[in-house]
Design goal:
Layout lengths: L2 H8 L8 H13 L6 H10 L1 H7 L1 H8 L3 H9 L10 H7 L13 H13 L9 H8 L6 H13 L2 H27 L19 H16 L1 H4 L6 H16 L3 H8 L4 H10 L6 E5 L6 H10 L3 E4 L7 E6 L8 H4 L3 E3 L6 H6 L6 E4 L6 H9 L5 E5 L3 H13 L5 E4 L3 H4 L9 E5 L14 H4 L4 H18 L10 E6 L8 H10 L3 E4 L8 E2 L3 E2 L2 E2 L8 E3 L1 H4 L4 E8 L8 H30 L24 H17 L4 H5 L6 H11 L4 H21 L1 H9 L4 H5 L5 H15 L1
Helix pairs in contact: 1-9, 2-5, 2-6, 2-7, 2-16, 3-4, 4-12, 5-11, 5-12, 8-10, 10-17, 12-14, 14-15, 24-25, 24-27, 27-28, 28-34
Bound molecules: S-adenosylmethionine.
The site of S-adenosylmethionine has 19 residues, from helix 20 and helix 22.
Subcellular location: Nucleus, Nucleolus
Keywords: Coiled coil, Methyltransferase, Nucleus, Ribosome biogenesis, RNA-binding, S-adenosyl-L-methionine, Transferase
GO molecular function, one term: rRNA (cytosine-C5-)-methyltransferase activity
């Protein structure tokens, strides 16, 4: 059988979740020895293919419906990275590759394939070449040759895969039968051992069994539920078991559980226990995908194109060399980048010669992709608030040869568009809770609390408003904003977008251009209804697309941001006063994020805050908001706002007086001070070239003068305090 047939089927876009996938997930999990979460994973990998099979019936049962063939297809779509511990998983994953002709694993075969390529770029080995070619390869690459290259590479796996294939089919058949049997037997009393386990280490095998039993019962509560037990009883039990089994806090487990049906939630939690495929992105500023693949295959790397949806991604299955230290890596031919993180940049689609802002850019996977798509023309402003992360960003920019990129280090909530505006496109890959990348960072399971789910969406809203205001709606080529997170919660995604739609009627949701890959954004959630166009936003899930959980929304700015109307401001102010005692934090979070966002003028440039088209934050209402923001900021820092802010304030005049008093040294002292300031402060000051000019003009109180070494944040605070003091 030809290699191509296998490739043609294998490389397709991962299939959306179907029930069979849940079954296959379970199976992969059973083999996956290196899951991030220790206990359950270990348990499954050593104890029990058998045990997990027993537990599986529900899952299997759900999975049972699709034919065996379909089950295989779904596996195909979810290859996982290889490691020594993943042998079994790999076999499982590639069980679908049975179409590949029996090939030896030796390098001769690969070299042979490659030398063919050198001679003839047009070689095709696909049985379904017409289909596969068009979809799989870059427009600017020779599809046939690349296909051949990939074939040569994949051939190395085929012997092992073919052997595994048969075993897998048998296993699938057996599971299917078990599942069918299980469907017909009476539901067990899942509450029976509820008390027995208290105080004892949980038997994970039993726990898993009970999880699957409970899910099955919830699927048909009327028939399978016990009299006197409500849906809530079962859901409570299930959530408790999920927390124990997977190690989530109850708070987070419930939040994630509520996104899905119980059965799909189970698939999601399971998928978070297995790593996603290792993917590299070809840096087209330095090479092309075919040459890169060829070079890596020569080093023994087993890879293939990541899917039809990307022209630059390569999925790596096996590598005898560390991918972060190959000569190609060091020469900037590729970057290790999760597949899902290609998507926001693809949605943004930056064009050559545009002016683009990446608001939260470190470590630069997306920045460098944008730079490559723009072919090193135009300008990318790559900003990040974190200095250590910005260093990594700079490293990547240099390594990948991005010459159209400027790095800034500012808080994007307030810096844009004040410092810079009028961008053709803005990417906001927002800081988030990371609920989409739990397989990479299992710490999320226990570290994120209710407070995070208030504070982080609040920051996301502020950032997105600033992103919108930084775009030039009249851009001839753009006027787009892409908002993305690696989180799956509604609070951080649809709810943030809905909020900005309300606050910025001059933007609308547009199609991401990512095709059918992913699922539509939610139109409603927990009683909240969202804009009907929310369906144009895309969600990605580990258990559906086998990529990190991700969210992508594309917005088009259609007009200049209107200045807030006076009556709106008044009513908001009145409303806030009323509700303050009841829900101070919620009110403040909403108001703050609106009014703190700078506004651009007709030309997309930062408004002249000293008397331009839009006024600065001069209303009494603004002062109140600024004060509230300040209190919140101090609280976040662990300071008591009352203690800090109730210190007697000095008027501007007093401050100046004091400053001038304290700053009237002798000529000699003056010379010394200047000299020492030059030697200590100047190099640091230079890094802030964008804001420095403005900082110099700020009125400074004596207190603030004393605190001067504090950099950007402190300076912003000073500015606000000074304004407040003035008022
Ligand atoms: C999801 S990461 C960005 C990843 C990056 N886009 C990439 O593809 O490599 C979010 C980034 O936001 C930065 N960040 C957090 N708060 C910020 C703020 N107020 N302004 C700018 N950047 C911020 C964090 O330092 C972090 O690097």
């Amino acid at each position: 059988m030809g290699t191509g047939r296998r490739m043609g089927t294998k490389q397709g876009v991962p299939a959306p979740l179907d029930e069979s996938k849940i079954s296959s997930l379970k199976k992969r999990k059973a083999g996956g020895a290196d899951a991030p979460k220790a206990a359950p994973k270990r348990r499954r990998s050593d104890a029990d293919e058998a045990a997990s099979k027993k537990a599986a019936p529900k899952k299997k049962k759900v999975a049972a419906a699709p034919a065996k063939v379909e089950k295989k297809a779904s596996k195909k779509a979810v290859p996982v990275p290889m490691s020594d511990d993943d042998e079994e998983m790999e076999d499982d994953e590639f069980g679908d590759l049975d179409g590949i002709s029996e090939g030896s694993m030796d390098s001769d075969d690969q070299v042979e394939g490659l030398s063919d390529l050198e001679d003839d770029d047009s070689v095709v080995d696909s049985d379904e070449e017409g289909h596969a070619r068009g979809a799989m390869f870059s427009d600017d690459e020779d599809s046939d040759a690349e296909e051949r290259l990939t074939a040569a590479n994949i051939e190395g796996l085929s012997r092992k895969l073919d052997a595994a294939q048969q075993e897998e089919e048998e296993q699938a058949e057996q599971e299917l039968q078990e599942a069918q049997m299980q469907t017909n037997i009476a539901a067990p009393d899942v509450f029976a051992d509820e008390n027995q386990q208290q105080g004892l280490a949980p038997d994970l095998q039993l726990l898993r069994q009970r999880i699957t039993d409970t899910i099955r019962i919830l699927g048909d509560l009327k028939t399978l539920g016990q009299p006197g037990r409500s849906r809530t009883d079962y859901v409570d039990l299930l959530l408790d078991d999920i927390c124990t089994y997977y190690g989530y806090t109850r708070f987070l487990a419930e939040k994630l559980f509520n996104l899905f049906t119980p059965m799909e939630a189970f698939a999601f939690f399971e998928a978070n226990e297995t790593p996603r495929p290792v993917v590299i992105r070809t840096n087209t500023l330095r090479t092309n995908r075919r040459s890169l693949a060829q070079a890596l295959i020569n080093r023994g790397v087993v890879l293939e194109p990541v899917g039809k949806w990307s022209k630059v991604g390569l999925q790596v299955f096996e590598s005898p060399v560390p991918l972060g230290a190959t000569p190609e890596y060091l020469a900037g031919h590729y970057i290790l980048q999760a597949a899902s993180s290609f998507l926001p940049v693809m949605a943004l689609a930056p064009q050559p010669n545009e002016r683009v802002l990446d608001m939260a850019s470190a470590p630069g996977g997306k920045t460098t992709y944008m730079s490559a798509l723009m072919r090193n023309t135009g300008c990318v402003i790559a900003n990040d608030a974190s200095k250590p992360r910005a260093k990594g960003l700079i490293g990547n920019i240099h390594r990948l040869g991005c010459k159209n990129t400027i790095v800034t280090h500012m808080d994007a909530r307030t810096a844009f568009p004040k410092a810079m505006g009028g961008f053709d496109r803005v990417l906001l890959d927002a800081p988030c809770t990371g609920t989409g990348v739990i397989s990479k960072d299992p710490g999320v399971k226990t570290s994120k609390n209710e407070r995070d789910f208030l504070a982080i969406p609040h920051m996301q809203r502020q950032l997105l408003l600033a992103a919108i205001d930084s775009v030039d709606h009249a851009s001839k080529t753009g006027g787009y904003i892409v908002y993305s997170t690696c989180s799956v919660t509604v609070e951080e995604n649809e709810a943030v977008v809905q909020y900005v739609l309300r606050k910025r009627p001059n933007v609308k949701i547009v199609d991401t251009g990512l095709g059918g890959f992913g699922s539509p954004g939610f139109l409603s959630y927990m009683g909240k209804t969202f804009d009907p166009k929310m369906a144009l936003t895309r969600r990605y899930f580990p258990h559906r697309e086998n990529v990190d959980g991700f969210y992508v929304c594309k917005l088009k700015k259609t007009a200049v941001t209107p200045a807030p109307k006076a009556e709106d401001a008044e009513s908001r102010s009145a409303g806030r006063k009323k509700s303050r005692s009841a829900s101070a934090s919620a009110a403040s979070s909403d108001d703050e994020s609106v009014d703190k966002t700078p506004i651009v003028d007709e030309n997309g440039h930062a408004a002249d805050f000293e008397g331009g088209a839009f006024s600065a934050f001069e209303d009494p209402e603004d002062a109140e908001r600024i004060a509230r923001a300040e209190r919140n900021r101090l609280r976040r820092k662990g300071l008591n706002p009352k203690g800090v802010l109730n210190k007697p304030k000095k008027t501007k005049a007093e401050a100046e007086q004091k400053t001038s008093k304290t700053k009237e040294p002798s000529q000699e002292e003056q010379t010394k001070t200047v000299a020492s300031k030059k030697s200590t402060n100047e190099p640091k000051g230079e890094k802030k070239t964008v804001t420095k000019g403005k900082e110099d003009k700020k009125p400074v109180t004596a207190d603030q003068e004393a605190k001067k070494p504090v950099k950007a944040k402190g300076e912003k605070k000073d500015k606000k305090s000074a304004k407040k003091a003035t008022k």
